[in-house]
Amino acid sequence: MTTQIGPGPGGPPRPPLPPALSEPPAPRVNYLNVAYGVKSWLLTTDHKRIALLYLASVTLMFFLGGAFAVLIRLELVTPAGDLVQSETYNKLFTMHGIIMVFFFLIPSIPAVLGNFLIPIMIGARDLAFPRLNLASWYIYMFGAAFTIYALVSGGVDTGWTFYAPYSTTYSNTHVIAAGLGIFINGFSSILTGLNFIVTIHRMRAPGLTWFRLPLFVWAHYATSLIFVLGTPVIAITLLTVVLERALHLGIYDPRLGGDPILFQHLFWFYSHPAVYIMILPAMGVISELVTCFSRKRIFGYPVVAMSSLAIAVIGFLVWGHHMFVSGQSTYAGLIFSFLSFLVAIPSAIKVFNWTATLYKGSVSWDTPMLYAIGFVGLFTIGGLTGLFLASLGLDVHVTDTYFVVAHFHYIMVGGAIMGYLGGIHFWWPKITGRLYPEMWARVAAVIIFAGFNLTFFPQFILGYLGMPRRYHAYPEEFQVLNVMSSAGASILGLGYLLPMIYLVWSMRYGPKASANPWQAKGLEWQTASPPITENFERQPVVTEEAYAYAVEGEAHIV
Amino acid sequence: MSSVADTAHGAERHHPDLVHHFESLPAQKEAATFGMWVFIAQEVMFFGGLFAAYTIYRHLYFHAFVQSSRHLNLPLGAINTAVLICSSLTMAMGVHASAIGRRRPTVAWLLLTVALGGVFLGIKTVEYKDKFDHHLVPGESFQAEELHLEGSAARPAQIFYALYFAMTGLHAAHMVIGIPIILFIAWMAHRGRFSPEYHTPVELTGLYWHFVDIIWIFLFPLLYLIGRHH
Amino acid sequence: MGAELPLFPVQASTMAGRVDALYAFLILVSVFFGLLIAVTLISFAIRYRRRSRDERPPLIHGSVALEVAWTAIPLGIVMVIFLWGADLFFAMARVPPAPMEVYVVGKRWMWKTQHLTGQREINELHVPVGVPVKLTMTSEDVIHSFFVPAFRMKKDVVPGRYAAAWFQATRAGTYHLFCAEYCGTKHSGMIGSVTVMEPAAFQTWLAGGATGTSLAAAGEKLFQDLACITCHRSDSEGRGPKLDGVFGHPVTLASGERVVADEAYIRESIVNPSAKVVAGFQPVMPTYQGLVNEEGLMQLVAYVKSLGGPATAGPGAALASPAPATAPAAATPAPPPRPKGQGR
Questions:
Q1: CB under 8 Å to B59, separation ≥6 — which residues?
Q2: Chains that contact C by 3+ CB pairs under 8 Å?
Q3: Where are the domains of chain A?
C-alpha cells in the first residue's frame, strides 16, 4: 500500500484536524536511537547520521575560523599593528579565509541540510551511494587534518587566494600542507556533488517529476553541477603550486617565461563558481522558508528553478572580473564585465519572486522566516554591490579594497550563513525531534542581523575611501570606521554563540516535536520527527505540485 | 526491509547484490554507471587545467617546445601507446567475459590488463630515468644544451618539462591507483562474485581504465609529436 | 579631519569625478531597489501576517507579465551601467599623447619611482598638476598593485612584464599611495605619497634634486657597459638591428608578424631575445636576464626611446625629460668581456 501525498482525484477537501489527531504517534525507534556507540556513528551509511557528522565538523571549523576573525577585528581597532606581528596577521586572514571558504561555507548547507533532506524530499531511502557519502566525510576530515596541521606547525600566509609567485616562490610558510589539505577536501565536495546528481536523477519517488521537486532540490542540483565541474580545477591549480614548491616543476615563474596571471585564471575559474556553490543552496533554503511561512506556493516556480541553473552556467563564464586590473586585456575585461552583469539577473529574479510569494499569503514571523527576510534584504545589498564591482571603470578604484571585503561578506555571511541558520532552525525539529526555544531564537536572529550590518556596512565606506584589503596597519583617518566594524563583530559573535547554546540545550530539554510542527508541505514533513532510518514506512507517491498549500478549486489569480 | 516488496520485480526481490535503497538491480546498475560517468567528467576537468596551461605555453614558446619535445623518446612513447591501447582491449574483453559469466577468462583478461599496465609504467620509468640522466628535470640541475636551444630560448624548455612531468606523472598516478583496483576486481571475479546479472564493478573499472587510456591518447601527440614532420 | 566622516576620497584627478559619478548613480540604483524590496517585503509581511490558524491563501502560480518586466527592466539598467563602466575603463586605458613619463619598480616592500631626469624617489612621487603622467611599472619579485585612491587609479604590477597606467592630477596636494595586492609581511607598510605641485614649484623641485644623470643617460652608460653597442651599431653593419628611431614604430619579425616596438617589446628583447627575432637577423643575442635588474632595464628602455621615434615634444614630455642622448659612437676601443651566459 502506498501513501498518497495530496488530494486524490475526485476526493473532497477535508477540514483541518488538530495536529494531535491527524498524525500517527511517532515511532519508538528512529535513526538516532536505532543504534548507540561510536562505531555506529563512525561507520554509518545513513545519510542522516552522516549529515550530523558534518554538522559537528563544520560547526567546529566555523568557530575556528571565527576565532581568527575575532583576532583580526581586535587588531584593526587601532591603526598601528600592535596586537600581533605582521607575519601573524597575514596568517590570521589567510587561515580565516581558507577555513571559512573551504571548510565551512562550501560544505555547510549541502553536506548538512542537503545530505539530510534530499533523499527524504524525493521519497528515497538514502542517497545513491551511501558508502561514498561516508567516504566524503572522511575525506573532509582528512583534508581538515592537513590544514590544521599547517596551522599548528606555523600557519600559512599566502591569502586564501594563493597568488603566484608569492605562494610558489616567496612564502616561507606551510603552503604545501595547506594546499594539500584543500586539495583533499575538494574530493569530498566532488563526491557529494556526484552523489546528489545521481540521486536526484535516478531516485525520485513515483509521480515526482522534475517540475514537482522542491526548489531546495533544484538548488542543490545546480550546486552539484558546479561541485563536479569546477572543483577539479582548483584541485589541479593547487597541485601545480604544490609541485612547484616541492619538485620545482614551475610554470608560473617569470624568470622561466612563466606567467603569474595564468595562475589567476586557473584559480578564479573555480573560485568564482565556488561562490555560487556557497549561495545557491542558501537560496534553496529560502524558497522553502518563504513558502512555508507564507503558507503559499512559490511565485513563479519554473522561473525560480531555471534561474538556479542559469546562475550555475553563467557563473562559469565570469571569472575574469576578479582580474580587471591584473594585466588582462581590456577586451577580455569587457566580456567578463558584460557576463557578470548578466549573471546578476537570475538572482534578481529570485528576489522578486520570493517577495511576490508573500503577497496575499499568511505570513508568520517565526525564526526561520526572520532569517529568510533578513537573507533577502542582505543578499539584495550584497548583490547590488556586485554591480559596483562588475562595472569596469568603478572596479579599478574599489577592487582589492574593503569594498570587496564588504561585498562578499554581505553575500556569504548576510546571505549564506543566514540561510544556513534559517534552515537549521526550520528543520531542527525534523532532525532532532525537538523544538528549539522560539524567543531566544528570535533574539539571536535580531542580534545577528544588527551585529552583521554594523560590522560590514562601514567596510563599504572604508573601501571607497581607499583602505586596501589585508592591511595589518592603516592610516589613522580610517580608524573610526574600523572601530565601528569591530564593535559590530563583537555583537555578531555574541549572536552566533546563542544558537550554539540553545540548540544544544534543546536536544535534551526542548519539547518533543510532532511530525509537522510548521504544517508545511514537502515529503520530509510527512514522516516522523526524527525519521526512521529508512525515512518512510512506505514508499511515497506524489500527485501534487510542490508547495501545494492552497486547495484546488479555490480562487486563484493568473 | 520488506518495503522493497512494493515495486521490485519478483526475480530480483532477494538478489543478494541489490542494496536496500534501490528498487531493482537495473536501477542500481544504471545509477552506478551514471555516477561513473559523472566522475569521469570531473576527471576531464582535472586534467583540463594542465592541458590549458600546456596549450597557452606551447602557443607562446613554440620553438622551445618543439626542441624540447624532440628529446622525448618517440619509439618508447609509441610502444607505450600501443601497450595502453592493448590494455584497453584486454580490459574490454574482461568486462565482456564477466557479462557472459565466464569466471576464468574474466580473471585472465583482467590480469593481462594489469600486466600491460605494468609494462607501461616500466617503460615510463625508463623514460623518466633518461630525463634525469640528461639533466632535463626542472630545477637547479636543469641544463638545456642537449635541446639545441640558444640563450633565452632555453628557459621555456623548463616549462615544457615541468608540464611533461606533471601531466605524465598525473596520468601515471591514475594508473598506479587503477592497477590495485583491477587486481581487487580480479580477485572478486576469482571468488565468483560476478554474474551476468551483476558485474557492475567490472564495467565501472573498465570505464575508468578506458578513460586513463584516452588521456594518454591526447598526451602522446601533444607531448611527443610536436613538429615531428619538420 | 575634525568631526567629519568623509564618504569618498578627495577628487584629485581628471578621472576621479567620472568614477564618483558612476558610483553615485549606482548608489541611487541600489538605494532605490534596496528600499523597494525591503519596503515591499516588510509591508507584505505585516499586511498579510497570519491572523488565524486556518487561513487559506489563494493559489497564485505566477505572472508571465511580471517575470518579463522584472527581467527586462533590470537587464536594461545593468546594460546602462555596463556601458558607462566600460566607457570609463577605456578612457583609463587610453594614454593621452605626450605624457610625462615615470618608471616605477615595486619590490618588497617599497615603491621606487624614477623620472626621466634621473630623479629617483622611494615611496614618493612628485608630479605637476594638469599634465598627463604615464607610469610604466614592473615588479622585481611578487605581484604588487599601485593604488592612489585620490586619483581613482589602480594597476597591478606583475614581475616579468610592464604594466602601464596614467593619470592627470587636477589639484595640488599630497595623496596616499598604497600597495593593493597582498605581497607578504610588510604589505601594509608598502605605502607612500604622491605629491602634486604647481608647475613652477615642480620645476623647482626637479632642479633641486641631486644627481644630474637622466634616465636615458644612465641607460646609455649601461648600453655601453654591457657591450650592446657591439652588435646594435647605428651604421647598420652590426649583427643586431639598428635602434635609432625604432621606438614606437612597427617592426617585422622573422615569423612575418608585425609588432609595435613599445616599452614591453624593448624589455622583452633584452631578457628574452629569441622570443621576437627581427626579420633578416639571426637569433644570436644572448639573454641579459639576471645581469640587469628591473631598474636597469627601465634605463635601457628610456635610452632606446630617446634615440628617436614619434615626436616626444609636448608639454608633458618637455617638463621632465632631458635633451635626447647622443647616439653611441660607431666604434669602441677594446671589446669588453662577453657577458656570462651566452650560449650557442
A1: none
A2: A, B
A3: 46-525
